Amino acid sequence: MANFEMDLLADSTRYPFRLQLEQYEFTRLVAAVLEGIDSADLRFNVEAKGFTETAGHVIVQLDTAAGEEQLPASFFGHC
After folding, report:
1. 79 lies in a domain?
2. CA nearest to 53, candidates 26, 79, 22
3. Residue 31 included in any domain
4. Structurally, how many domains does the chain consist of?
């Protein structure tokens, strides 16, 4: 058991508390949600090397174990 003295953070942040969720747990939660979305394409061990924006979609350059891949992806506007 650990005891965290959160009052030590009171002068450093507006949110003096600590929440922790390990990356593997976060990944499991997100993956479960994305599995239910037909347009989602969840990939592991892939690096996005860049993208090219075109009219109405982007083309993402991926580096995969099988080599480079071009992945077209739609978007819903600009941020």
Report:
1. no
2. 79
3. yes
4. 1
Provide the token pair at 1. 């058991």
* Sequence-ordered strand ranges (E) for the chain: 47-54, 57-64, 67-74
Q: Name the one residue in this structure whose structure tokens are 């996005």.
A: 48
**Cα dihedral 61/64/66/69 (nearest 10):** -10
- Kindly report, residue by residue over 11-62, the tens digit of the pLDDT: 888 877 767 789 999 999 999 999 999 888 899 999 999 999 988 889 999 9
CB 52 within 8 Å of CB 59 = yes
Residue 1 lies in a domain: no
Owning domain of residue 10: 6-74
Q: What is the pTM of this model?
A: 0.57
